[in-house]
Specification:
Elements lengths: L15 E3 L6 E3 L1 E4 L1 H5 L4 H13 L4 E3 L7 H9 L7 E6 L11 H15 L4 E7 L3 H6 L1 H11 L3 E7 L2 H9 L5 E5 L6 H5 L1 H6 L3 E5 L16 H13 L9 H11 L5 E5 L5 H8 L7 H14 L9
Parallel strand pairs: 3-4, 3-10, 4-5, 5-6, 6-7, 7-8, 8-9, 9-10
Antiparallel strand pairs: 1-2
Helix pairs in contact: 2-3, 3-4, 4-6
Length: about 300
């Protein structure tokens, strides 16, 4: 069970924004659960990590069925503090990222997520990066709508990028969109976010720190970081060589019109106070924000699409 910090104090909550038409009062910084699942983090560490996150005023926890033990670890850690957070999960990819979009499989997946998270109802279930063709069939969206009718989730959303994300917004059946928004990933700023805002959708930014890929002096060996590393090398933002680079990157994402919360993953319990402190400077100045956008428009190529 998570607990207040060692001194028994609660930190001043970070800013909160209404997550579109869901009405969820979401902290602008949320916890992403992939790292704790993939990196075999202990239950004790996850308890400390989520405790420090809640103590810092973060109330959004985002995970997925395919993040190995993430859901189970989160469910055990939250315990009696379930009412202090909004639980988001995703379905469609099982262990090893094996996709299964059959409606019956999606319903079983959601039931399994509820058991792992130790709750009767989550706040949001999202389709996890299914293709445009799959979305257009409609039955996958119907499976989530059925889960909402059954009381398994309060809201439904789509997590992904590109043309599929655009369709998810246009079809009008989802409450939220989770999509890539960062220094190295700005396609959504024009492709989906304006329309999502016009339709009152909640917007969750994933990878807001672009995997902090600029910290690698040489091209990383892990494919997960390579694309962003190459983009950032070409963009060559001067501030990435400064100590405040992480703050600037995070504040850029949260300054994008229509973004309500940004999901950041970590395995370090102390990271949450650090991240919450980074937001103290507030939104980027308009000139700095527009400078980043102008550099993107000047350098980004047609292949620089949103990264799933």
């Amino acid at each position: 069970m998570v607990a207040p910090n060692a001194a028994g104090r609660r930190h001043k909550p970070v800013e909160r924004r209404r997550l579109g038409r869901t009405g969820i009062d979401a902290s602008v910084l949320g916890f992403g659960g992939s790292e704790i699942g993939y990196q075999s983090v202990s239950a004790k560490t996850v308890g400390r990590l989520l405790g420090s996150a809640l103590d810092a005023g973060l109330n959004v926890i985002d995970t997925a069925e395919c993040y190995d033990d993430s859901e189970s670890l989160i469910g055990k850690a939250i315990g009696s503090r379930r009412s202090e957070c909004h639980l988001f999960t995703k379905c469609g990819h099982g262990p090893g990222w094996r996709a299964d979009w059959r409606p019956a499989s999606l319903r079983k997946s959601i039931e399994r997520s509820l058991r792992r998270l130790g709750t009767d109802c989550v706040d949001l279930v999202q389709l996890h990066s299914c293709s445009l063709e799959t979305l257009r069939r409609g039955d996958v969206i119907g499976a989530l709508e059925d889960a909402r009718t059954r009381g398994w989730t309060r809201f439904i959303g789509y997590s992904g990028d590109g043309a599929a994300a655009r369709y998810a917004v246009e079809c009008g059946r989802f409450d939220t969109l989770q999509t890539s928004v960062s220094l190295a990933d700005q396609e959504a700023i024009e492709l989906t976010l304006p329309l999502a805002a016009a339709r009152g959708m909640g917007v969750i930014a994933k990878r807001p720190l672009a995997n902090v890929a600029w910290r690698y002096a040489r091209r990383p060996s892990e494919s997960y970081y390579q694309d962003y590393w190459e983009r950032l090398r070409a963009l060559d933002y001067p501030f990435l060589r400064e100590s405040a680079a992480v703050s600037t990157a995070l504040r850029f994402t949260l300054s994008v019109p229509g973004v309500h919360t940004a999901i950041v993953g970590t395995t370090r319990p102390e990271r949450w106070e650090e991240n919450a402190a980074l937001l103290g400077a507030g939104a980027l100045a308009a000139t700095e924000f527009e400078g980043i956008r102008a550099r993107w428009r000047a350098v980004a190529g047609p292949s620089w699409t949103g990264q799933i």
